[in-house]
Design goal:
This protein is mainly alpha-helical. The chain has 4 helices and no strands.
């Protein structure tokens, strides 16, 4: 929570924060790009932009996840 507030104050985007934070030993885990929606949720809640639990824009979250991951998320449906 502190990292989120500090990043918001510094004008750091969730994508920039995800890249700067690093995942350490968890970087190789499947679907590590899911960090991005969690950071976006934290930003929205910390800034009070939407009521708690409000849906976020899934399309833009997936697009940003692809940027972070270097390719679209895997889908085996």
């Amino acid at each position: 929570e502190d990292v989120t507030r500090e990043s918001i104050a510094a004008g750091v985007s969730p994508l920039e924060l995800a890249r700067a934070t690093g995942l350490g030993p968890y970087a190789e885990l499947l679907d590590s790009e899911r960090l991005l929606p969690n950071l976006h949720r934290g930003y929205v809640e910390a800034e009070g932009r939407l009521p708690e639990g409000s849906p976020l824009d899934v399309g833009s979250l997936f697009a940003e996840m692809a940027v972070f991951h270097g390719r679209p998320p895997a889908c085996h449906a």
